[in-house]
Design a protein that fits this description.
With 276 residues, this protein is an all-alpha fold. It has one domain. The chain is built from 11 helices and no strands.
């Protein structure tokens, strides 16, 4: 894999990971369309993508450091109300993470076969547009709450099951979890906030599973080097993306998903026509 290809995929990862447009889908589709000469069926390709996601996790930790520090401080705080609040948010995060962790463990090998097939990723990216578009219409049937203090354990579980749809390349993890949040009654900003918080343990869990595979390859030094470079680039672009999205969802409390839905239809449909 050339350094130019690594830079392109890393920037793509950083920009699209947190936008509701599926970074994994783009990482599978773009190399084929741009003819980047990447063997997506190679055993080290998925671990390489996980390293890029790890760069995103670092950005999430940096951006939301106050949240994580507040949770840790609250757990050991003597004030019952602060301790209770921290325990509650941790429990909600565990509930929201649990379905993806279990299903990912059970079906890892079956789902992994889809990751290197561009035409499947393009089809799911096109479908992702419909999920964004119609979920926004369904949210009007739900009570509209404003912050995470209103999220129940049932709402967290719904978010967790929605997150599982992102096992298919082309379905956005951030988009799916935000959809779950909206249908649970959260605002766009609160949905994005919770989505980004639970992304960190999910990404770190995937890294624990996949990154050691890079250490088993014969071309260890070269693969590790380009993976680290890619991770740094993805981290920088992810931080910029987080900043933009948190401000975007703060200002757009209605029809915020619609532009992303149209993008998925255009990008996914165009990729399908190109690849068929």
């Amino acid at each position: 894999m050339s350094i130019i290809s690594v830079i392109i995929i890393a920037i793509l990862q950083g920009v699209t990971e947190l936008f509701p447009v599926s970074s994994l889908g783009h990482a599978v589709i773009l190399p084929e369309i741009l003819d980047l000469k990447i063997n997506q069926q190679a055993s080290e390709f998925l671990p390489f993508l996980v390293v890029l996601h790890l760069g995103t996790a670092v950005s999430l930790l940096l951006y939301f450091w106050r949240d994580w520090l507040g949770i840790l401080f609250g757990l050991f705080c003597k004030k019952p109300e602060l301790r209770s609040k921290s325990i509650r948010i941790l429990i909600l995060m565990i509930i929201a993470t649990f379905p993806a962790a279990i299903l990912g463990y059970l079906f890892e090998h079956k789902l992994k076969d889809l990751f290197g097939i561009p035409i499947i990723a393009a089809a799911f990216l096109f479908l992702n547009g419909f999920l964004l578009f119609f979920s926004e219409r369904l949210r009007y049937r739900c009570n509209h709450k404003k912050n995470l203090s209103n999220l129940s354990w049932k709402g967290a579980l719904m978010i967790g099951f929605w997150q599982c749809t992102a096992f298919f390349p082309g379905i956005s993890r951030s988009g799916a979890t935000m959809i779950g949040g909206l249908l649970s009654g959260l605002s766009y900003r609160a949905s994005a906030h919770f989505s980004f918080l639970i992304a960190t343990p999910i990404i770190l869990g995937a890294a624990i599973l996949e990154i050691p595979k890079l250490l088993q390859k014969s071309a260890i030094s070269e693969m590790l080097f380009i993976s680290v470079i890619g991770g740094i680039i993805a981290s920088i672009t992810s931080f910029i993306s987080i900043y933009f999205l948190m401000h975007y969802f703060h200002k757009h409390n209605f029809e915020a998903f619609t532009p992303f839905a149209f993008y998925c239809w255009i990008a996914g449909g165009g990729a399908l026509l190109f690849l068929i």
